[in-house]
Specification:
Length: 508
């Protein structure tokens, strides 16, 4: 028997989720898979250090046969055949209902980057998903306004658990913190796999071996609960630079449990900075706003993703445009709609089968663009993109990115990073800042750019060199808050912190 200790404060209806059988199921996953998770995290460190020394990554020679042979993933279930619009967001009941009613085909129920893992958020999110699976999700605001799922066709729920790197400090198994991903997946699967499709988005994978671990988790979970093998369907976010070199292999490892890949653009940009942060000036990026999806290395990544997916019969899902409308400002809204239409038009033209939005008002725009591209077809798997040829050098052509580092860009990175961390520490992992939807990924870009610019002695458009003193001087202009100290820790520490959410988690 595993010794299970729960350290979180009581949360409304948590007893419906934290049943003895559900906790035993999670403990079983942890017993079988936690050590493998730890080994894979250690392997990440070694691979990153080698890539930084050499200033390169490449496609794996040992898996050439997988890349060159013909095979396809399992066909998608009907609920995931048409994914032209997906809406992302946190799992509080009101936002969940709005997402389910939005007209999107899929709701990405985000237990990861858009969620601060306060115990109340972790538990209330599971309650929301429990009710959504059973068609009984309702919410009444303090002002008395009632919300319920009333769409004729509610969005299909696809859950994003935490990445492999995060633990859950409120669940101790034999005295050890549980793996956050296994808590999120395990509780959701245990309660809902027999009721609704057990569909998942898998974040921040860095290798096909990490995909193999998830595949084994799925197989184990299906077997333990007597669920048909292959019932689980995952979509993997290609949002780390090493994963971009292993797309075929990731699809192959999950071929009985996968439905597609997603171009997780913001985390991908963060990962590239992180991976090559100390590899020399050719990897130094300009202002965040200057790095668009038309940058050569970003085009290479997205086009390779579409080609790889469609060759294997898997869906290629576009990423999230950060622009959001403002119902109080027609000018801001018009600009957001224009930017989103442009972004989604490029993705549809490139062959993506659908894309993400972060606000219900953007669903019609994305749908309009993909309706025009798809017509009556549910997807465009038939567009094989055989015209695409991407090399390792193309994926790493950072120095070809237009733009430069500016004082305005530095100030913006610091401002966004601090504001986001204030929101995160307060319990809100998705924050609207300056009419952009920011989550942990965009905050990671901000602090990583600052770290990279300081270490590489970048000179700004004003002639100022980016130094720790300059960063502290700008931070001193911000209103006093605990977020300033945390931002400084993750942006200026001599030893780069892999994920800002790790030290931030210890502060909540």
């Amino acid at each position: 028997m595993v010794d299970i200790k729960l350290l979180g404060e009581p949360v409304e209806r948590d007893a419906e989720i934290l049943t003895p059988d559900a906790l035993e199921f999670v403990a079983g996953l942890h017993h079988v898979f936690a050590d493998r998770r730890d080994e894979l995290l250690r392997a990440r460190v070694a691979k990153r250090e080698r890539a930084s020394r050499e200033g390169r990554l490449d496609f794996l020679p040992e898996t050439r046969d997988i890349r060159e042979s013909d095979w396809r993933v399992a066909p998608a279930p009907p609920a995931l055949t048409d994914r032209r619009v997906e809406i992302t967001g946190p799992t509080d009941a009101k936002m969940a209902i709005n997402a389910l009613n939005s007209g999107a085909r899929v709701w990405l129920a985000d237990l990861e980057d858009a969620n601060t893992p306060h115990w109340r958020n972790v538990m209330s999110g599971q309650v929301t998903l429990f009710d959504a699976a059973r068609g009984q999700l309702e919410f009444t605001s303090p002002e008395g306004k009632h919300y319920a799922v009333d769409a004729e066709r509610p969005a299909t729920v696809v859950v994003r658990p935490r990445g492999w790197h995060l633990d859950e400090k409120h669940v101790l198994l034999d005295g050890r913190r549980a793996v956050g991903a296994l808590v999120d997946f395990g509780l959701h699967f245990f309660h809902n796999a027999r009721v609704a499709g057990p569909y998942y988005y898998l974040p921040k994978l860095e290798s096909h071996l990490e995909a193999r671990l998830w595949n084994d988790v799925f197989t184990h979970a299906e077997r333990e609960l007597g669920i048909a093998h292959g019932s689980v369907r995952a979509t993997v976010l290609i949002e780390t630079i090493p994963a971009a070199f292993e797309m075929d292999e990731i699809l192959y490892e999950l071929r009985e449990h996968i439905s597609g890949l997603n171009a997780g653009r913001w985390d991908y940009l963060f990962s590239l900075i992180k991976y090559f942060r100390d590899a020399g000036p050719e990897f130094v990026l300009p202002d965040r706003d200057a790095v668009t999806m038309t940058a050569p290395f970003m085009r290479a990544y997205t086009e390779l993703l579409v080609r790889t997916c469609h060759r294997r019969g898997a869906f290629a899902m576009g990423g999230m445009a950060a622009f959001i409308p403002n119902r109080r400002s027609p000018e801001v809204t018009a600009r957001a709609l224009e930017k989103v239409r442009e972004d989604k038009g490029r993705e549809a033209g490139d062959g993506f089968d659908g894309s993400w939005v972060a606000h219900p008002d953007l669903v019609p725009v994305c749908r309009e663009v993909f309706d025009a591209a798809l017509g009556e077809r549910p997807n465009q798997l038939d567009r094989l993109r055989e015209d695409v040829s991407v090399t390792a050098a193309d994926l790493l052509a950072v120095s070809a990115t237009p733009g430069r580092a500016t004082m305005a860009g530095l100030r913006s990175a610091i401002d966004i990073g601090v504001r986001y961390l204030e929101s995160w520490l307060a319990g809100n992992g998705a924050a609207a800042i300056h009419n952009l939807m920011e989550d942990a990924a965009t905050a990671e870009i901000s602090r990583s750019l600052v770290w990279q610019w300081v270490r590489n002695k970048v000179v700004l458009d004003t002639g100022d060199q980016v130094t720790e003193d300059l960063v502290w001087a700008i931070l001193a202009e911000e209103p006093e808050s605990p977020a300033i100290e945390l931002f400084a820790e993750v942006a200026l520490a001599a030893e780069y912190v892999d994920f800002l959410t790790i030290p931030a988690y210890e502060r909540i």
